[in-house]
Amino acid sequence: MTTLELSGGHVLRPDLTVERADVLVDQSAGEVLEVGALAGTGDEMLDCSGSLVMPGLVNAHGHGAMTLLRGYADDKPLEAWLEEDIWPAEAELEAGDVGAGTRLAAVEMLRSGTTAFVDMYFQVDEVVDAVTEAGLRARVGHGVVTVGKDDEAARADFEESLAVAERHDGAADGRVRTAVMPHAPHTVGTEFFEAFVPRVHEAGIPLHFHLNETPAYLDPIEAEYGERPTVYADDLGLLGEDSWVAHGVHVDDSEIELLAETGTSVVHCPASNMKLASGMAPVQELLDAGVMVGLGTDGAASNNDLDLFDEMRDAAMVGKLAAEDASAVAAPDVVRMATEGSAAAAGLPVGRVEAGGVADFAVVDFEQPHLTPTHDFVSHLVYAARGSDVRHTICDGAVLVRDGTVTTLDEDAVRESASEHATALVDRAN
Ligand SMILES: CSC[C@H]1O[C@@H](n2cnc3c(O)ncnc32)[C@H](O)[C@@H]1O
Ligand SMILES: [Zn+2]
């Protein structure tokens, strides 16, 4: 057994108290052995003085390779943005693009303290290779869209999502888990849900999809079935403890109750919701109803970054506006959303720093002017810290970022390759 000691820092405990402590990790098992006063007992030492050791952040909804389309199309609402710009560009995507874009996403996430993420996209073999190389943890899936496809192509798309989930589950020494990911209730035909959802359940595979992001998600379902999309999704077997949805912006009281009753988690994506003017999710109401809420960036083309510190601040700010209450979506709730909440939503065994727990951490440098004085660590994590304050990132016991430098990927090469792929992709699309 080789041990790593995170020494000299403060530690954010699961009850969100902070104490001066070291953390000893079994690197081969990727597990925390002890949290306490250790004073130099590790085989390898990682200096965390002046810093806070917290659980690695978990990005519970996104489309990693959309980094290639960052800044390609802005200042439009979701439907116009997807139909006029994003989907035509994605029609030109090649496997290598997804690999390059996901590596860029990995570098950005690692540098800002994210150790696990959820990815709904295409060419998932490439996504898995990038995750494996980066050393990250992920829940990945092939996104299914059947609108605009004939029956054969639509069925093939859903088959691909199932096959990908079965092929990759447990990859990268178990750091990669999978899910079947239909895009949304209104972009996948009812007959395909009816045919495939029972098979997904039989195979014990979780489900992840976009729900009620904009008013346009409601109209077609209400017009055809006379019910809210959450009820429609429940009728099709899409809700449950193994399901988590992205957005949940336009959910009424009965839908919130249904999400709580079925144990379906909601991933809040505040930056994307603000940028696309999709609306303000009723996060405090979801929390009050007992719904598990996680946090996600969505893709880098609608955010336009993958920094969960930024996202935490946005979640707190817009949560207060939505509730018209400055005490709503308070800092401790937001830190829980970005750690344990996201982890529970995505079914990943992370989100707490404790003995016997998984060794995934972000180490945040608090010796910064904008983090001085430190009356309250949790307040600073939400309202004042930035992704660039992350000093070290550790996943599964391995140091993936040491003093701001990614150890597993060559950052310059990743940036260069992503730029080349992005330019060629956009040239093909235009
Ligand atoms: C079928 S793979 C995922 C699919 O989703 C698209 N997408 C990106 N951002 C959003 C969003 O905010 N709402 C809905 N769909 C989104 C992405 O471009 C892919 O086509
Ligand atoms: Zn999305």
UniProtKB/TrEMBL annotation:
Keywords: Hydrolase, Metal-binding, Zinc. It catalyses: S-methyl-5'-thioadenosine + H2O + H(+) = S-methyl-5'-thioinosine + NH4(+); S-adenosyl-L-homocysteine + H2O + H(+) = S-inosyl-L-homocysteine + NH4(+). GO terms for molecular function: 5'-methylthioadenosine deaminase activity; metal ion binding; S-adenosylhomocysteine deaminase activity. Residues 52-399 form the Amidohydrolase-related domain. Zn(2+) binds at H61, H63, H210, D298. Substrate binds at E90, H183, E213, D298. Its EC number is 3.5.4.28, 3.5.4.31. InterPro entries: Amidohydro-rel (IPR006680), Deaminase_MtaD/DadD (IPR023512), Metal-dep_hydrolase_composite (IPR011059), Metal_Hydrolase (IPR032466), MTA/SAH_deaminase (IPR050287). Its cofactor is Zn(2+). Belongs to the metallo-dependent hydrolases superfamily. MTA/SAH deaminase family. Catalyzes the deamination of 5-methylthioadenosine and S-adenosyl-L-homocysteine into 5-methylthioinosine and S-inosyl-L-homocysteine, respectively. Is also able to deaminate adenosine. This is 5-methylthioadenosine/S-adenosylhomocysteine deaminase. The gene is mtaD.
